[in-house]
Design brief:
The structure is a homodimer of 154-residue chains.
Chain A lengths: L4 H15 L12 H8 L3 H13 L3 E4 L5 E4 L8 H9 L25 H18 L3 H18 L2
The structure holds a DNA duplex (30 and 30 nucleotides).
DNA sequence: TCAAAAGTCTACTAGTTCCATAGACTTTAT
DNA sequence: ATAAAGTCTATGGAACTAGTAGACTTTTGA
């Protein structure tokens, strides 16, 4: 049940972009190089990932001096599920329970396949989380954790 | 977030073994060939999978004429999570949230890593299902579905 | 106007994993 | 003794993963 490095890096980059937004300021434009340094990711690999995300409409970019990437929509309107699917494909653990990419799995009787019933539950549990967690939610949650750590360490 | 064929076939085989048990009868001994035919799985591939499951202590076997495989413990004491881990490794989508195989994931600050917080939730959701669903649970659920289909089709 | 700074695009590759298949071997019942 | 079953190890092709390389385009601003 593994998230690929591609997915991990892409999600981390998007979360970083959402986290560097400040209220009442324009969306910050951040360079690949800066993201790769802050998140410790190979910049050439990250480049491909951001390009994919851009072509999927989740990021916009500016070329040339002073250019970089920024979120295509407000952080509250981009969910982790959307990002995940662009980079790692369907969320479902097995194709016969996938909403986005259904395929029969080859069991003798799909309707009564026990594995399918359980994996359907697993799929729903994952989707519930990923599709209902926006980049904004993640940023807020991180801030909350940071604050609680700050308070308890005093 | 994919379950491998290995994991899928192994789970299906175990579910089949649990499903072919009858009350007040000794655990049925089933041959590889029969499982592979009923579940439409390459018998040589299945052979390796069952062997792995046997070496992990989840199956027992009998060699020779009239031999085959049978569950090493009652179906109520074998969970899908146990089987999954033997065949596909840790359940966690990312190593830094794995209980069984923790490794740092390389993010700058693990404690406040937003991705890690969310993936921890995902891990917990999956584990909740897989570790609390036994082979017996699956068999009962399948029977319930079969009954409800039988009733409504009359 | 030109050079530097940035993203864009395509190709390549070493390594790994996945899904098997093959075949020789061991154990057991009759 | 023989046939039926599981055991074990090796091999192979295909796909995928994580990354590297390099030539190209667009934009800014000196």
């Amino acid at each position: 049940m593994r998230l690929s490095k591609r997915g991990e890096y892409g999600l981390r980059a998007m979360i970083m972009l959402a986290g560097s937004a400040r209220e009442n300021e324009p969306l910050p434009v951040v360079q690949i190089k800066e993201i790769s340094q802050r998140e410790q990711i190979s910049s050439k690999f990250l480049e491909q990932i951001l390009l994919t995300l851009k072509n999927a409409g989740m990021l916009h970019s500016k070329m040339g001096v002073g250019g970089g990437y920024y979120l295509a929509r407000p952080a509250s309107e981009i969910t982790l599920g959307q990002i995940f699917r662009v980079l790692d494909g369907p969320v479902a653990p097995i194709k016969c329970v996938s909403q986005m990419a259904y395929e029969p799995c080859g069991c003798p009787d799909e309707q009564t396949c026990g594995l399918r019933l359980v994996m359907g539950d697993v799929r729903n549990a994952i989707v519930d989380i990923l599709d209902h967690t926006s980049l904004e939610d993640v940023a807020k949650r991180r801030e909350a954790v940071q604050q609680s750590l700050g308070l308890t360490s005093q």
